[in-house]
Write a structure and sequence with these properties.
mainly beta, 8-stranded antiparallel beta barrel, 11 strands, disordered N terminus
Length: about 190
């Protein structure tokens, strides 16, 4: 009997150690993609993308994952309607030709159970370049309202916009560097 119980315990431990990856749907009401750019080296211009969707697959035991986030470039919102229209033009996002931008990350770095970095590819305006998102905060919790696990955090990176052929204003002194701040929460499915 003792041998049988030991075998059951070892089988259970092996199953736990090889836990399946969990899939999470990005909650658009708790996810924000914000950009910041220096304006004539004087002040910071900020805006966000109001429409976004995606999913995350996370295997904390194996320390692996994959994230896909798509945002609608036509939903750019600077708070100024005339600027929004210019940002959607060919000078910037060319939203008519390229209605979405997408980040796909599949190289996760962990510190214990916490994600500290996600490296992947950002596709925007038909060009794809590597981007690494650094986690400023990361946590998973049992949502008392949803009765499901929610994982998320604050991530940030700085990209060089001319890599995606967004070079309007560089000759005027607008920065080529864009700081991206991504607050994301995703609900376990």
């Amino acid at each position: 009997m003792k041998t049988f119980l030991t075998a059951v315990a070892l089988t259970t431990l092996a199953a736990v150690a090889q836990a399946e990856p969990a899939t999470y749907a990005i909650d658009p009401t708790h996810t924000t993609v914000v950009y910041e750019i220096m304006h004539f080296n004087t002040s910071t211009n900020r805006g966000r993308f109001d429409k976004k969707e995606g999913s995350v697959t996370l295997d904390r035991a194996a320390k692996t994952g994959k994230v896909e986030v798509t945002f609608d470039t036509g939903s750019v919102n600077s708070g100024v309607p005339a600027l929004n229209k210019h940002l959607m033009s060919k000078d910037f996002f060319d939203s008519e030709t390229y209605p979405t931008a997408k980040f796909v990350g599949d190289k996760f770095t962990f510190d214990g159970d916490k994600v500290t970095e996600v490296a992947g590819q950002l596709t925007m305006r038909g060009k794809t370049n590597p981007v690494t998102l650094k986690a400023v905060h990361f946590n998973c919790y049992q949502s008392p309202m949803l009765k499901r696990e929610v994982c998320g955090g604050d991530f940030e990176t700085t990209i060089t916009r001319s890599q995606w052929d967004v070079s309007y204003g560089l000759n005027y002194g607008f920065s080529d560097q864009i700081h991206l701040l991504i607050q994301v929460e995703a609900v376990k499915q």
